[in-house]
Amino acid sequence: MSQNTSPSYYKELIDLQDVEGVEAQFKSLLAVPIESISDLEKWLEDEKDLLFIIDEAMTGHQVDFYRNTEDADIKSTYLHDQQAIQPLLMKYVAKLNDKCCDSTYFTQLDDNHYGLMRRVRESKVKLFREENIPLLVKEQELCTKYDEIMGSLTVEWEGEEKPFPFIESLLDHLDRAVRKKAYHTMMSAHRQIKPDMDAIMDELIQLRHQIALNAGFENYRDYMFIEKNREYSIQDCYDFHENVAKYIIPAWNRLSNVFKTKLGVDKYRPWDNTAKFMKNPPYSDVSTLMDGVSEMLGKTDPFFADRFDYMRANGLLDLDDRKGKVPGGFCTSLPVSGDTFVFANFSPSFFSLIALIHEMGHAVNGYFQLSEHGPIEDYKGRSEVAELYSHGMELLLLDKLDRFYPEEEDFKNAQREELRRAFSMLIGPLAGDLFQHWMYTNPKHTSKERDEKYFEISKLYGLNPVDTSGLEEEIGMSWAGTLHYFQVPFYLIEYSISVLGALQILENYQNNPEKAVESFKKGASANYNQSIATIYKETGVNFDFSEPAVKQMGEFLEKVVQDIH
């Protein structure tokens, strides 16, 4: 089913081709005198309005490119933004930060409304170096190159050329021989692009290391902890890795043994690690998918379905799988339009169903924020918070998977699979986090060492119970298929942290569904100027990934799986 790909879903209220005109607006803002706290507050609103207008146009151009990487005009517009507007934006945002922080009235701003903004701006002033601007532009160019390669990646299957997401969907197939063939086809595709991916990653690591050195840090990992304004320490992350290895992985292994028995296999191989036991894909076309998800959301809360149906009617969903479209899925905000846009490129599968529900958790959160507080500035969008509502939405809809799996045994298998996904989201992202800690604290590593380290960490975590004999090279190079390593470094541990919160949402839902949904909505509407812990508390859960919390939620998750008879 073809979907509308016109740019009407976003507003283009500024001509980004007119670089001098854009610069003039920044210069005008910098020239405004600030002679009182009310002047500063007015100036902050004007600054926000300008940045939102630019952000929406650039976001629209980026999404257009992700939707069709093969259109030369769309690509040209997107590259212009990256090569001409992004450097300008970096330069003038730094000047705006200086003007704001240097103001006599900066420290007098109300802490409840501006406290987070003050802390973020002070961090940005600390990190900014003019010499990093061309490095950051080059970084974005390399990420664009990654998008182009992945967007054009196809595989041959039974004599036909297929988009890469198609082959990924076959890892759900009931027939083990089909899964095995799909796995090796995927690895073959990865092998073809591996030299390019190694070259891109090698250059990214050196660029990022130099960015950190220029800013006065020993390595990029330490730089990113300040850049992301994390409310926890590097040691907290290492402790989390260890706690999951101690409590979650043994439970994961026990669950994997159950799946191995059900599969009737002696050895649990990588193509069994995603095995689903439902008879068929949950849908055959995008329209059927959207009908069912709307119904599931409506049974949970009318507002959830209302937002989905609104997005569907207004071209704010692009869910087809097609050549030239970047793989994966995401939700992004359009601050001027007051909307959210969901992008997904998956073939029909259980995962694609869950991915859409996940992104709708982000979208619902975004609409609550827009209605309560207006558009979200970048500094407020902390991933530990955002991912709580996406993973939380998945688990709130756990009891409604019968909409796509009406047969009782399929329904139970779908629930088990979603809960197994919760296990995997506690483990896999932490493995990726540990991998990145290693990469950026050892920036002189070779591509061979990188593959070996990835295999080693994978074996300790998500592939712990899997027989990987003879596949060491394939697994070692499979990091190249994860966009986070390229485009959003150190954005992985947030998934695992938020899953612990989402499991608490599920526990609350089992005890009192109505109260749990109301708490979800309250937290999704919370003032994002608050700490992460406070926002979690408003959602009815704890922001806690200590050893006792990991142990408790691991036991809860395992019990929920066992309770599905």
Automatic annotation (TrEMBL):
Family that this chain belongs to: Belongs to the peptidase M3 family.
Q: Which InterPro entries match?
A: Pept_M3A_M3B, Pept_M3A_M3B_dom, Pept_M3B_oligopep-rel
Question: Per its UniProt record, what PANTHER family does this chain match?
Answer: PROTEASE M3 THIMET OLIGOPEPTIDASE-RELATED, PUTATIVE-RELATED
Per UniProt, residues of the Peptidase M3A/M3B catalytic domain are 171-524
GO function term, MF aspect, one: metalloendopeptidase activity
Keyword entries, A-Z: Hydrolase, Metal-binding, Metalloprotease, Protease, Zinc
Query: Which Pfam families does this UniProt record tie to the protein?
Result: Peptidase_M3
Q: How is the cofactor bound?
A: Binds 1 zinc ion.
Needed cofactors:
Zn(2+)
Instruction: List the protein's name.
Output: Oligoendopeptidase, M3 family
Q: Name one GO biological process term.
A: proteolysis
